[in-house]
């Protein structure tokens, strides 16, 4: 929320009476015309208005005033507020300009068809309509149902794409997961199509014959000796 000066004219009266600031400096700080500040100093304007001390309200410091008095080119700056009050959000149905109200039924029809997961309250927030109107359009009992054509509310300027995506995301979170019948024919899972278990784990382990292993090793060792004996003869 942007900082704004409280009671500009009353503040200008106080600055004229209690400081040596120029008319241009006071006019720039109070968002007034220099001639209007001059008229206040001459007593020709703002008669009957009591001056407001910006130092007591925390909008201006004495050091800032002193710097501006010493330098005519210095522009006064508002002090940072010690407490920031959050801006209140307006609650209630979204306001729709008169020129776009005739497009609301088309936008409602588009939302009902393309996003059936949206609740009536969500559609009301998006396009600024009533639940009875939504129900009439959904059940085709609206007085102008024959002439309605679904149109994107974002394209019509009734809501922003960010607001629409946010409402759709909220509706998707509360929606149960679709069943197999709703999904129809689907691809098989990876576990069914691929053999994730190695083949050697599926084969039965063979019993190891120790005697056969030792006989094989003995035959390998005796083979070189037999070849040497053949060479000697």
From TrEMBL:
Pfam families: TrcR. It comes from Rhizobium aethiopicum. Residues 192-205 have a biased composition (Basic and acidic residues). This is Cytoplasmic protein. It comes from the Bacteria. Residues 184-208 are annotated as: Disordered. The lineage of its organism: Bacteria, Pseudomonadati, Pseudomonadota, Alphaproteobacteria, Hyphomicrobiales.
